[in-house]
Amino acid sequence: MNVTSDIFYVGVNDHKSDLFEGQYVIPNGMAYNSYVIADDKIAVMDTVDKNFGEEWLANLKTVLGERKPDYLVVHHMEPDHSANIAAFTALYPDAVVVASAKAFVMMKNFFGTDYSDRRIVVGEGDKLELGKHTLTFMTAPMVHWPEVIVSYDSADKILFSADAFGKFGALDEEEDWACEARRYYFGIVGKYGVQAQMLLKKAATLDINIICPLHGPVLSENLEYYLDLYNKWTSYVPESSGVTIAYASVYGNTKEAAELLAEKLTEKGCLKVAVSDLARCDMAEAVEDAFRYDKLVLATPTYNGDVFPFMKEFINHLTEHNFQNRTVAFIENGSWAPMAAKVMAKMLENSKNLTFTENNVKIMSALSDENRAQIDNLAEELMKN
Ligand code: FEO
């Protein structure tokens, strides 16, 4: 696949892995992207996951023919991109490795060598001349590891953006970009919104026609759409108005409350209500919804003087990813000593700029008429917010 007349896609599609990074389900697989800039000098941009080394080297060979690469540019050392560095350097002993100083330290740890005899260390603003193409490097620490660099090719106006603008899903699958890019961003990079914002500020100074990420499709049209979403996600601003209802339920009573609330919200005209059963759903999807919409309802029984374990895990995901700037409501259940609302409030006490609703719901086992009225009042308040 040509990205431009002399930039080629040589990445691979992964339909073998069940989990990405050991935790994220990837029903439509995953893409590990790699590119070749074939100029006077040839630069290969990143490698791929360890299970796809042979396929990747074959892709390289198809593009290179008898030519040999001059450089391997390593933007990111996470193994989904770096696992084949040693295989590449063994196959092409004259190629020079180009990466940040921190990346070379990681190479030593991963591969036992920091390539001190065949490397170029690059940092902010450094350039690599290839002929017609010149790469300018920018640091992007914590997007999503500390050693990350991105690069900009001024000839074709391309940003090689590392994990930024990536998504789950193999490239031979048709699917909506935003859905799986959002789940990917909030799960994997979401804790580092401040750092991702810094990268966007650098990108804003560039004239970009194409974004080449390390996962997901090459983005070459309507870039404002992607940049606008990334701007919202990285600044923790809700993407749209809507309500996420995340619940855990032991015998179905808390579930009934959550579903009744969803019904009431829909009746009152709320267009976006996302309901997740935390014991059964893909929790990364529920986390994504919590960051997507401006209101979140947490519903759980009290359990061992605490909240139900799935709710605990869910709130931990939110706080670890800097959940903020949202309206939050609680539905608690407890057959003898309801504690859940207190525990959830405590878990969220350090989250910035949360507005807690005045109407909450306290269930003492099964839904009472009073609870139904409380749920109606809560729906009313959420519609006003
Ligand atoms: Fe796709 Fe952070 O590696």
**Continuous helix count:** 12
Query: Sheet with the most strands?
Result: 7 strands, mixed
- Uncertain parts: none
- Give the names of the bound compounds: MU-OXO-diiron
Provide the helix percentage. 25-40%
Report on the structure:
- It is a single chain.
- With 385 residues, the chain is of the alpha/beta class.
- It contains 12 helices and 23 strands.
- It has a 7-stranded mixed sheet with strand order 1-2-7-8-9-10-11. Strands 17, 18, 19, 20, 21, 22 and 23 form a 7-stranded mixed sheet that branches.
- It starts with a strand and ends with a helix.
- MU-OXO-diiron (FEO) binds next to helix 2.
What's this entry about, in short?
The protein contains twelve helices and 23 strands.
Question: What descriptive keywords fit this protein?
Answer:
385 residues, alpha/beta, 7-stranded mixed β-sheet, 12 helices, elongated, binds MU-OXO-diiron
Strand-helix topology:
Elements: E1 2-4, E2 7-9, E3 12-14, E4 19-20, E5 24-25, E6 30-32, E7 35-38, E8 42-45, H1 53-64, E9 71-73, H2 79-82, H3 85-91, E10 96-99, H4 101-111, E11 119-121, E12 127-129, E13 134-139, E14 149-153, E15 158-160, H5 177-189, H6 193-204, E16 210-212, H7 223-234, E17 240-247, H8 253-267, E18 273-277, H9 283-292, E19 293-303, E20 306-307, H10 309-320, E21 327-333, H11 340-347, E22 355-356, E23 361-363, H12 369-384
Parallel strand pairs: 8-9, 9-10, 10-11, 15-16, 17-18, 17-19, 19-21, 21-22, 21-23
Antiparallel strand pairs: 1-2, 2-7, 3-6, 4-5, 7-8, 12-13, 13-14, 14-15, 19-20
MU-OXO-diiron (FEO) is lined by residues 76, 78, 80-81, 144-145, 163, 214-215.
